[in-house]
Amino acid sequence: MATSDEAHSPTTIFRARRIVTMDPSQPVVEAVAVREGRILAAGSFDECASWGPHDVDDRFADHVLVPGMIEAHAHSLEGAFALLPYVGWFDRHRLEGTAPGVRSYDELIERLSALDEEMTRDGSGQLEPVIVGGFDPIYFEDEARLTKDHLDQASMTRPIFVFHASAHLATVNSAMLRAHDVGRHSTTEGIAKDADGEPNGELQEIPAMMAGGASALQGILRAMNDPAAIDALGRICANQGITMLVDLASAGLQRPQSQQLWHETIDRDEYPARILQRHVAALPPGSTDWAEAADAILALRETDTDKLRTAGIKIILDGSIQGFTAKMDWPGYYTGHDHGIWMTAPAQLLDICRPFHERGINIHTHCNGTMTIDLWIDTVEQLLIEHPWLDHRHTVQHCQLTSPAQYRRMAKLGMCANIFTNHIWYWGDQHHDLTVGPERARRMEACHTAEREGVSFSIHSDANVTPLGHLHTMWCAVNRVTPSGRVLGPDERISAESALRAVTLGAAYQLHLDAEFGSIECGKAADFTVLDDDPLMVDPMTIKDIGVWGTVIAGQPFQADA
Question: Which of 1, 49, 65, 467 has the highest Cβ tally under 10 A?
């Protein structure tokens, strides 16, 4: 029974049609009691009521509660992206409704022309660039690769920056190239050139985008640190049932002055999500004192609050598979041109990671191609030889083409995987037919292999690369269906229960937060995702269509927008 002191603390008992706990000792309960933002008890209503005076909240009587879903790989750019014009292939949910996809170059040029007409000059009289997002030329199989010549049809005078969905490439027009003095003399890796040696407008990876589109990137960075974009990010989380989002490109090390703004925006009681920041120490070009960066991470932790926390460091090793910029082992790409780019020099990776590892800072590394996965596993093995750490949980991010042998090595080393299951839907057919070929495409996003080999894993959307929302990432992992109707690697499908574990306890575990989040049990944070139905009981093909009422954060309900 409750003590006299505890009895004076306000307690709320939430009842629901069904409460799925992810606690193996009691997988389903009928009620959960919340006190001081934490779970006081989960079980029968009478058991919860036995803790003393309480209020009963029956608003979820027709709904299903599951542990708060954790998106362990997304980006704050999702909030800014919600404020940018959208030109992606698929229709996409936005705060203001559904944005239609762009299915032809003519339609793209028409939208860009309209934006050019709507925009004005900035205060200096210069033409502000048109910046749009979500485009990917790989879907336009009957068209030549998008170049400046296409975009020049929209404007020869206003700079245009078409940000690809992967966020690893962009295509710009001639005005943008002229604005940044990019020509045949430019030597920056990733500035694509035509047969005559002239830049064709495609900028592959950050160094090239900085060289040929810095004004647009600066605009995007400003948007990412706009309180309106941060607010939009929280609203999107509530709309999609995400209680915690990890930003894997936070800039607290590069722009520490921005941290105050983030705290002021997110620490408010009414902000509807928890945000974890996994900082990028540096993006090329440039140099960094990695020991100082590791100490700066520890200093950032001292300012952590309940809603805004420091998760650790992110290292970027290569590009994207669909952009042909990921580093691939033999036999390389199935078709197309291999533009594989090392974003971090392999010889430097160990020296970069060592200061973080030695200070107990968890490292997550972006690995799309098979070559980078091997490099990261080798690096973790050497780090552990030099400085044993039995509970590091260093993670392979994206983990797309990880082989069974690589998963076995990861399991022995205590590594985790965060698997980009949305790729099965958004690029599965392209991977099968164009990038890696049928056999390797069937084992992409191999959740079942990770599970079988004993690697703790989560799954992710990489929002804004694909839309935020774990019902869709779960649906992909469970069904592995592509837009053409192909089941891509049926033997890599996992159960709905495994998929739900991946977006709750699996994500919490790789963040070293599984003692606090990821399941509904006594002592943990009272974070819940509120759904219209139970993803463990519906037809697996309908998981992505389950309605989202909203979320509960530390016992406070946040209803999704209508």
Answer: 65
**Claim to verify: residue 184 and residue 234 sit in the same structural domain:** no
Structural domains counted in the chain: 2
Nearest one of 64, 398, 463 to 236, comparing CA atoms: 463
Q: Is residue 242 part of a domain?
A: yes
What is the rounded average pLDDT of the residues 169-173? Answer: 96
Whether residues 173 and 94 share a domain: the answer is yes
Q: Can you tell me the distance from the alpha carbon of 166 to that of 85, in angstroms, rounded to the nearest whole number?
A: 16
pLDDT over 50 (residue 39): yes
* Residue 171 falls inside a structural domain: yes
Amino acid at site 53: P
Domain-embedded: residue 182? yes
Q: Which residues are CB-contacts of 386 (< 8 A; sequence separation ≥ 6)?
A: 354
Domain boundary among 163, 194, 222: 222
Q: What is the pLDDT of residues 188-213, one digit of tens each?
A: 999 999 999 999 999 999 899 999 99
Q: Which of 337, 319, 320, 331 has its CA nearest to residue 437?
A: 331
CA 328 to each of CA 17, 203, 274: distance values in angstroms, whole numbers, following the listed order: 48, 20, 36
Residue 123's pLDDT band, with cuts at 50, 70 and 90, is low
**pLDDT tens, position by position, 400-443:** 999 999 999 999 999 999 999 999 999 999 999 999 999 999 99
SS3 call for 38: strand
Task: For residue 355, say if its preceding peptide bond is cis, omega within 30 degrees of 0.
Answer: no
As a whole number of angstroms, the distance between CA 103 and CA 107 comes to 7
Whether residue 385 is found in the same domain as residue 255: yes
Query: Is 30 a domain residue?
Result: no
pLDDT band, residue 122 (cuts 50/70/90): low
pLDDT at 282: 59
Instruction: DSSP letter for 504, please.
Output: I
Instruction: Output the pTM of the full model.
Output: 0.92
Across the chain, how many H-helices and E-strands are there?
Answer: 20, 22
Q: How many CB atoms are located within 10 Å of the residue 538 CB?
A: 16
* Listed residue (166, 167, 189, 201) closest to 342, CA to CA: 189
Give the domain range for residue 96. Answer: 84-222
437 and 366 co-located in one domain: yes
Residue showing tokens 């750019």: 77
Question: Hey, CA dihedral for 542, 544, 549, 551, is it positive or negative?
Answer: positive
Return the bridge partners of 140, or none.
Answer: none
CA distances from 549 to 22, 57, 61, 242, 430 (A): 20, 15, 12, 11, 34
Residue reference for tokens 């941290």: 259
Write the burial class of residue 181 (CB in 10 Å: 0-12 exposed, 13-18 middle, 19+ buried).
exposed
- Residue where a domain stops, chosen among 203, 222, 241: 222
